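Below: protein 1.
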Amino acid sequence: MKKVFVTLATLSLIVTLQSCQDKNMVEVVVDEPVKEEAVVGNPENVKAEGKFQMVALPYAYNALEPHIDAKTMEIHYSKHHLGYTNNLNKEIEGKDLADKTIEEILTSLDLENKALRNNAGGYYNHNLFWEILSAEKSAPSGALLDKINADLGSVDNLITQLKEAGAKQFGSGWAWLVVNKDGKLQVGSTPNQDNPLMPNMAISGTPILGIDVWEHAYYLHYQNKRADYLDAIFNVINWNKVAEKFEATQAK
């Protein structure tokens, strides 16, 4: 008769066979399988078909980890954003719209044209989103910081308002920081792929920061915990780019 004792260790599996007759011990060491890293593609290989092209990501898919994982970034950019871009190009092909900028399309949009509304919004919104993210730490400064303090009280107040706007947006949508028609900073949200450049939105103005709260932006890593995603994303906001966009509104 033989007794078999099995022990699972962290780095190896040791199987010990003990004979009741001769008490000889035999150890077999089996290496634990090596965990393979998820293979992700290269954003430079993602190409759209038509007038509007993909804005190049200024970082690799994995650059924003652990706050935004590489697989989410790859799917978000190469599937969702590419889809909006290609569908936008189909909507404008052969029309006067093909001669307009994306901003001109959005500001003169017929909201009843749902296909154009969704895809033009999706194209613009994601372009902004990629721009205002970065792996390099930054903080509001200079004229932007002064304006935040003047209009919203403090950076902490701004971040709290943006988190609340994103958390309270029912279903899919976006949280925004805009410069409104009065030249003041304002926080708000829009559903789906709507944005503050479109007519008759609840928040109107020039966006300088947008946070995607569609589930495809966070669900692989955060599942239903949108609040955790909103906490994490402020670790990768490119405040220098936000400042640049703010300053551009002041030059008009």
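Below: protein 2.
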Amino acid sequence: MVRIARFNPVCGRKTCSTPFLFNIITPIYQCLVPMDDFFHSLGLAISLLWHHDPTLIEVVLRSLGVSALACALACVLGLALGAGLGVRRPKGEAFWVAILNTLLALPSVLVGLVVYLLLSRQGPLGFLGWLFSLKAMVLAQTLLVLPVVVALSRQCIKAAHDRLGEQLQSIGLTQGWRALVLVWDERQVLLTVVLTAFGRAISEVGAVMVVGGNIEGFTRVMTTSIALETSKGDLPMALALGGVLMAVVLLLNALVSVLHWSQGRRQHLGRAQSQSQSQSQAQDLVHDVTQATLSKKRGGRS
């Protein structure tokens, strides 16, 4: 460190002092020096993405396939259960709603542990031989995403049933048909639920790590690979996978935003159209009343 000698009139001798600007620059420089490794790793990660590294592509495709299959299974079951709970009013509804809200915050590691115990050799489903396989990972992600789909779809269908339930009952529809009609009517909102479930599934790491084993070339997905490569010090591969995962999440959020925007625009256009129709009907009514009044006056004069 560079010091400048100055004369101190109090003690009568020269003392060394550090310039103020140098004290500011030195910590900044010390912080920027380790960033060279980060930018170097980032450059290698971009190179892996640009050259379509086979290992990277394999892990990404496996992640998308497992998460898509788990999301599809969870949505088939969850939408049916959510629509049924939204149309019906089961006994102890507050209790079941509390259970659903609790399952929304269920730790993924706990789900992985439960699935591991079920699929182990001593477990009730050990005869399937699914442990440390893609099937076990799909099962774990399905159980993890299912409460999200059920809770969100139940809330959506319940709100729609409170608004349209009496009209559907008046035309003689049963509960099953009312649920199907409301699911179709709220399809855009439910599509948002599906995208949310897929985002929850693809960003999960604990359950698939426990039941899949993170086996290279077999059960390794993006999240588990990021954790492993970071622990190994292979930052370029971890950054590349993290970039792909971030891109998938951003794409999902963009789709959800577009769906919300289109739904709001449709509602706005519907309100504007209904207002214009009501105004035209009011004008026609005023015109009819005016014509009737004039005809009465003419008849009275005659």
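The longest strand covers residues 4-8.
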